[in-house]
Amino acid sequence: MQPIEIKKDIFWVGCVDYDHRDFHGYSRSPDGSTYNAFLVQDEKNVLFDTVAPWRAGVLLCRLSKTLPPEKVDYIVCNHMELDHAGSLSEIVECVKPEKIFVSQVGLKSMQGYYAGKNWPVQAVKSGDIVNIGKRNIVFQETRMLHWPDSMISYIPEDNFLISQDIFGQNIASSARFADEFGDEGKFARRIKEYYYNIVLPYSPTVLKALPLVEKMDIDMLAPDHGLIHRGPRAVRFIIDMYRKLAEQKPQKRALVFYDTMWSSTEQMAYTVCSGLEENGVPTRVMSVKNNHHSTVMTELADCGAVLAGSPTHNNTILPLMAAQLTYMKGLRPLNRVGGAFGSYGWSGEGSKQLQEHLSAMNVELPCGPVKCNWRPDYEGLKACRELGKSVAEALRKKCD
Ligand code: FEO
């Protein structure tokens, strides 16, 4: 448990958590995540962020190999969510800091989580500068990226930005830098997965924040999760990728997700897929029984079309489809076309309800839902293929 010097007198003192999975419904990547925390040694020694409560000992162990914890003068809390601030009690007790800096909104969260603590807290706002010796810390609030309290900390003398959750990825690895990871495809997928399951609802805010970040002269961009972006090319790569993810320009690819009782809706899903592919739209079919809702969400990152299928069950849709749609709606994807389909025995309102869910997400629906009684017959399958074709045409128009 050694600290790692990532720049002169700047140390990574975080922890790699290979075992943590669920993160408010988002199933983190199969290999876990990393909580990054940083120590800057100067006339004032500053700890930026902490770690999840169950890993406080790891941070303290790394920190104490750099300097005795009581030599830390300041703690900066860029974000009060508990994967970064949940070990604050233990850390503050050991460190006894002279000051704790937090955003003005973060102060309220801190008072909520740590009521009754008589800590030396100072609230800061965008543009506030704290001198720590040879260096300055410039604070920039990034409200709703992804919490109201969120802020980032820039140290201009080192061209170093600590970006808290933004630009992060859930990766657990002994690599600290993106250029050490050795799997560019997996790295990009983890960025996408993180964005589509955490940051997506705040895409308009991302587009406003990116120019602020671009104004900073940065050669190292350190998020609070995953690998650090080192060097101008890596910094450019992640900023460009965020812009692309936030813009959500339509892409010529479709996602068909479904659940099924006795395979009728499954058969419809694959036929809808044929209708899309025969009309030039590569398609991924995903059963919500076989894929976690966050994996389905990640797939949407590359798809301009989204189609949902469920049989009617107890006058509604199957519960896993309801869960998937609730999760997807909360993440507010923009700029999609789509459609709905499903089999039924008697009442048959499921596919119409799917259509309503998609409509509530502002998905453009070029035609009504397709429903098939009991088993899809020739006409039913033809209607599924036509649904695929209609969505493919609508998507083509959107992409042109
Ligand atoms: Fe990584 Fe919003 O906490």
Summarize the structure.
With 400 residues, the chain is α/β, with parallel strands linked by helices.
Describe the structure.
This protein is α/β, with parallel strands linked by helices and 400 residues long. The protein folds into 2 domains: 4-247, Metallo-beta-lactamase, Chain A (4-Layer Sandwich); 255-399, Rossmann fold (3-Layer(aba) Sandwich). Helices cover 37% and strands 21% of the residues. The chain contains 13 helices and 22 strands. The protein has helices at residues 56-64, 82-85, 88-95, 104-113, 178-181, 184-199, 203-215, 232-247, 264-277, 293-300, 319-330, 350-360, 378-399, and strands at 4-7, 10-12, 15-17, 22-23, 26-27, 33-35, 38-40, 46-48, 74-77, 99-103, 121-124, 129-131, 136-141, 151-155, 160-162, 220-222, 229-230, 254-258, 283-287, 305-309, 337-344, 370-373. The chain has a 7-stranded mixed sheet with strand order 1-2-7-8-9-10-11. It has a 6-stranded mixed sheet with strand order 12-13-14-15-16-17, covered by helices on one side. A 5-stranded parallel sheet has the order 19-18-20-21-22, sandwiched between helices. The radius of gyration is 24 Å and the shape is elongated. 50% of the residues are buried. The mean pLDDT is 97. MU-OXO-diiron is lined by residues 79, 81, 83-84, 146-147, 165, 224-225.
